[in-house]
C-alpha cells in the first residue's frame, strides 16, 4: 500500500487562521503577532498577564537511543497532544524549532510525521519566524565586537591566545571547525586561531531557551565569558558592552511561536538546542506559558533519554522550577530488532527473538527515568510491518520493568490512533505518583557531577578526565561556578562514546575531551569522545533532493 509523504500530508492540511488557534488557549488576536495566516508570536505582555494561573500537568516525551530504523519522538509528541485533545483534555504541544543544518544534511525535516505533524511544515523546517537568524546575528555581533575591541587598542587586555568565543553558522560545514582569522595584514586585525560551531550549539541559543524574560536574557548574555586575560581573569560579554545590542537583536526571537497540529490543536515551537551537544529542550518561556494556558502540556527532549531527558530533568527543570508528572519513552519494534542485531534491510521480517534481545536498551532508559522519581509510560510507535507477536514481546518486557507499554498508531491515524496512549498517560498522572528530583545536588563538585551522569545514566565504570580538565573544573569551582549543572556532549547513538555500540553495554569508560564554561546559560559542557559541535554533511546530503517543483512548491523535505 502506498502512503503519502509527510510533506504531501502537510500540504493538504486544512489549517485554521492562527487567531482561532490562539483563542483555544484564551489568547486574543491583539496578543498575537502574526507571521502570515498560520503562525504568530505570543506577546510578552500576554505571557506576563497569565502568570497567576494554575499550572497544568507537564508530560515529557523521550525515547530510546536513535537508530536508522527510526523512533518518531516528535511524531509521538504531536500525536499524544492530539490524542489528549481527542479524549476531551485541554492540551498543548511544545517542541523545538528545526535547524537548517540537519534539514539539509541527514534528517530533511523535523515537524513530526504522517498524520501527527505540526504545520506549516515547510516554513518550520526553513526560515520560520527568523529566530535562528536572530540568534546567529546576535552571536556574530559579539564575535565582531571582540575582535574590534582588540583591534582598537585592547583596553581590556584580552590575551588573543585565550579568546574562547567561537563563531556560529546554522549549517553543517566541517571546513569551519578550525580556522585562522584576521589574515591579510594590519588592517584586518591580529591573526589568531578560531572556529565555528553550529548555531544550535551557541550559548546564545541556550540562553534564549533558559531565560524567563528580556531582562533575564540581557543579564545572562552579559554573564557569558568570551576570553581571558594573561592573568587568567575572565572577560565577559558585558565588558565588551555587547549585551544590550544583542538583546535588541533577540527581542522578537524571545517571544514564543504559536502554530497548529494537523488537527488544529495549539503547538508552541520555540528554540532549538541540540541534545547531543547542548541541552536539547524547547524554551522555558514557551513551556511555562503553555502550562498557564493548558491542562496538559506535552513537550519533548532530543535524542534518547540518556541525553535529552537527562538534560531536561537535570538542567531545564532545575533552572525553571518545573516538575514533569509523567515521562513517555518512545520505542519501535524496528529499533528493538536493530538493537537485537538485525540489519536495516531485514527489519521487515518478523523476528521476535531479536525484539526481545534488543529490549535491554529500552529497559535501561526506563530505569534511568524512574530514578528521577517520575512514572513512565512506554509508547510503541507503530509501523505497518510490526506483527502482533513482536508488539506483545515489547509489552511483556516493559511489564517486567514495572511499567506499561501502549501501541500507538498516530502516524497512520492521527488522534484516533493515539487515544489509548493519551488515556493511559492521564490515568498515570492521576495516580499522583510523581516525586521528581534531579539525580545530583547543586553543591556536588563538577567532576563528581560528570561522573554521576556517566555511571548512573550511561552505566559506565567512570568518566575519564585528565589533570588539565580536573584543574579547570576546580578553577571554575573557586570562581563560584561549582553549583552549575553539567551538560554532556556525547554521541546520541549509544550509551557509550562509540556510536556503533548498541543495546545496553557495560564495562566501558567515558573519555572527557574538553570542558567549556557556559556561564550565561548556567551550565558546564563536558565534551566526550569524538562528538563535534560543528557537524558535517553526509556523503549524500538531503539537500541534493530538496528543490522547487513546477508549481513553486518545496519537494524533498521529509
From TrEMBL:
Involved pathway(s): One-carbon metabolism; tetrahydrofolate interconversion
Binding site for ATP: 67-74
Keywords: ATP-binding, Ligase, Nucleotide-binding, One-carbon metabolism
One Pfam family per UniProt: FTHFS
Stated name of the protein: Formate--tetrahydrofolate ligase
Gene: fhs
GO MF entry, a single one: formate-tetrahydrofolate ligase activity
Catalytic reactions on record: (6S)-5,6,7,8-tetrahydrofolate + formate + ATP = (6R)-10-formyltetrahydrofolate + ADP + phosphate
Keyword ATP-binding in annotation: yes
Gene3D superfamilies membership: Domain 2, N(10)-formyltetrahydrofolate synthetase, Formyltetrahydrofolate synthetase, domain 3, P-loop containing nucleotide triphosphate hydrolases
GO biological process: tetrahydrofolate interconversion
Any coiled-coil regions, as ranges: none
Enzyme class (EC, first level): ligase
Record family assignment: Belongs to the formate--tetrahydrofolate ligase family.
Cross-referenced PROSITE patterns: FTHFS_1, FTHFS_2
Enzyme Commission number(s) of this protein: 6.3.4.3
Amino acid at each position: 500500500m502506498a502512503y503519502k509523504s509527510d510533506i504531501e500530508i502537510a500540504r493538504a492540511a486544512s489549517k485554521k487562521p492562527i487567531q482561532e488557534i490562539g483563542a483555544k488557549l484564551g489568547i486574543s488576536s491583539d496578543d498575537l503577532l502574526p507571521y502570515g495566516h498560520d503562525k504568530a508570536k505570543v506577546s510578552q505582555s500576554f505571557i506576563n498577564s497569565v502568570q497567576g494561573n494554575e499550572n497544568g500537568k507537564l508530560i515529557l516525551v523521550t525515547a530510546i537511543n536513535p537508530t536508522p530504523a527510526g523512533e518518531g519522538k516528535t511524531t509521538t509528541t504531536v500525536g499524544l497532544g492530539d490524542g489528549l485533545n481527542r479524549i476531551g483534555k485541554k492540551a498543548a504541544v511544545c517542541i523545538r524549532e528545526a535547524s537548517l543544518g540537519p534539514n539539509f544534511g541527514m534528517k530533511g525535516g523535523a515537524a513530526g510525521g504522517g498524520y501527527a505533524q505540526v504545520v506549516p511544515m515547510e516554513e518550520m523546517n526553513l526560515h520560520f519566524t527568523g529566530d535562528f537568524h536572530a540568534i546567529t546575528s546576535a552571536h556574530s555581533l559579539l564575535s565582531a565586537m571582540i575582535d574590534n575591541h582588540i583591534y582598537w587598542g585592547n583596553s581590556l587586555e584580552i590575551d588573543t591566545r585565550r579568546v574562547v568565543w567561537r563563531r556560529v553558522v546554522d549549517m553543517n560545514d566541517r571546513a569551519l571547525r578550525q580556522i585562522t582569522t584576521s589574515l591579510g595584514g594590519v588592517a584586518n586585525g591580529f591573526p589568531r586561531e578560531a572556529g565555528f560551531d553550529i548555531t544550535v550549539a551557541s550559548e546564545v541559543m541556550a540562553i534564549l531557551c533558559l531565560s524567563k524574560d528580556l531582562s533575564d536574557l540581557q543579564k545572562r548574555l552579559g554573564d557569558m565569558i568570551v576570553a581571558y586575560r594573561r592573568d587568567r581573569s575572565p572577560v565577559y560579554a558585558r565588558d565588551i558592552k555587547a549585551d544590550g545590542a544583542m538583546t535588541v537583536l533577540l527581542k522578537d526571537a524571545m517571544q514564543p511561536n504559536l502554530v497548529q497540529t494537523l488537527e488544529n490543536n495549539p503547538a508552541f515551537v520555540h528554540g532549538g538546542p541540540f541534545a547531543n551537544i547542548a541541552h536539547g529542550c524547547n524554551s522555558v518561556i514557551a513551556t511555562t506559558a503553555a502550562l498557564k494556558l493548558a491542562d496538559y502540556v506535552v513537550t519533548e527532549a532530543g535524542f534518547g533519554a540518556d541525553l535529552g531527558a537527562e538534560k531536561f530533568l537535570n538542567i531545564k527543570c532545575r533552572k525553571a522550577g518545573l516538575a514533569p508528572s509523567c515521562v513517555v519513552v518512545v520505542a519501535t519494534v524496528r529499533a528493538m530488532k536493530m538493537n537485537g542485531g538485525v540489519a536495516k534491510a531485514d527489519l521487515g521480517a518478523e523476528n521476535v527473538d531479536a525484539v526481545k534481545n534488543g529490549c535491554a536498551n529500552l529497559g535501561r532508559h526506563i530505569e534511568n527515568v524512574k530514578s528521577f522519581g517520575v512514572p513512565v509510560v512506554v509508547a510503541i510507535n507503530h509501523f505497518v510491518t510490526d506483527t502482533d507477536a513482536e508488539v506483545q514481546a515489547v509489552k511483556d518486557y516493559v511489564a517486567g520493568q514495572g511499567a506499561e507499554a501502549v501501541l500507538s498508531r498516530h502516524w497512520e491515524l492521527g488522534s484516533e490512533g493515539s487515544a489509548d496512549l493519551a488515556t493511559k498517560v492521564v490515568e498515570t498522572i492521576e495516580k499522583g505518583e510523581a516525586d521528581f528530583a534531579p539525580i545530583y545536588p547543586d553543591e556536588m563538585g563538577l567532576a563528581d557531577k560528570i561522573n554521576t551522569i556517566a555511571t548512573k545514566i550511561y552505566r559506565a565504570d567512570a568518566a575519564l578526565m585528565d589533570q588539565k580538565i580536573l584543574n579547570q573544573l576546580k578553577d571554575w569551582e573557586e570562581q563560584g561556578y561549582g553549583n552549575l549543572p553539567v551538560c554532556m556532549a556525547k554521541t546520541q547513538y549509544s550509551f557509550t562514546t562509540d556510536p556503533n555500540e548498541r543495546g545496553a553495554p557495560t564495562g566501558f569508560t567515558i573519555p572527557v575531551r574538553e570542558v567549556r564554561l557556559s556561564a550565561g546559560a548556567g551550565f558546564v559542557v563536558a565534551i566526550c569522545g569524538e562528538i563535534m559541535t560543528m557537524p558535517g554533511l553526509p556523503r549524500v546530503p538531503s539537500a541534493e533532493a530538496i528543490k522547487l517543483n513546477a508549481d513553486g512548491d518545496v519537494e524533498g523535505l521529509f
